[in-house]
Amino acid sequence: MDLRVAAGEVLGLLGPSGSGKSTLLALVGGLLRPSAGKIFIGDQEITTLDASDLDRFQASRISLMLQGARRNLVPYLTVRGNIDFARRQALSLGSELLPVDGVLDLVGGAGFADARLDRLSFGQLQVAALAVALAPAPGVLLADEPTSALDHEARERILDALMRVNREQGTTVVVVTHDPEVAARLPRTVTIRDGRIGGEGRSGREYAVVTADGFVPLPVDVRAEVPPGTLLRIERVNGGYVFRPEILGHETGDSVTDRTRGP
């Protein structure tokens, strides 16, 4: 997989369960080490960092918001206590951070800053988890299903907070989602199928993506009509390209059908 995300961009990762979205997020976040390939955050290749250097890099540059709000929170601390805890390592490295109340204001969590976690709704827990992820002022925020199982109002609150963080802090945001309504609000989406980039969305339009090795995934609706093993002849026509599926005779190799798809 080859994927480039620009600094300050908001990107959604889409695709069916098991396609590799969460694994990709864990690789970029440094929780997993790739068996091959390279991962860069800015000009730093994080795959070359040892454990201690990676810890320091993560503390100041990357935050990973795991799926399931409670996985991101210390259960015996208040929301404020969780945010303060999440800031400590970045502060020890000299990072300039928003105060705790500033982080809460950014995500709309000021109303329950001193509440115990067992008194919060699921939507409020998600807001708290997002605040914790943003506490170290990361350059890159990776959020795995941040709106999962939320009602419409809570989902919009989380999305508004993510967009505000991107707009006001310049944070690069990468979001994994299954929700088409969430995807519709994101300026760019990438669909992953079978561990590859299977398509890309820009402003509501879907595109196939030519990979570095020349692989072009077919859109889902086309795959339903063109069975595996179909031979496609690619012809240049009027400055564009036409894909012509063919069925060849097994003995002679003669073409026995020629059905033209649109350009």
From TrEMBL:
Highest taxon in the source lineage: Bacteria
Any GO MF annotation of the entry: ATP binding
Domain ABC transporter stretches: 1-219
InterPro entries linked: AAA+_ATPase, ABC_transporter-like_ATP-bd, ABC_transporter-like_CS, ABC_transpr_LolD-like, P-loop_NTPase
Record keywords: ATP-binding, Nucleotide-binding
Name by which UniProt lists this protein: ABC transporter ATP-binding protein
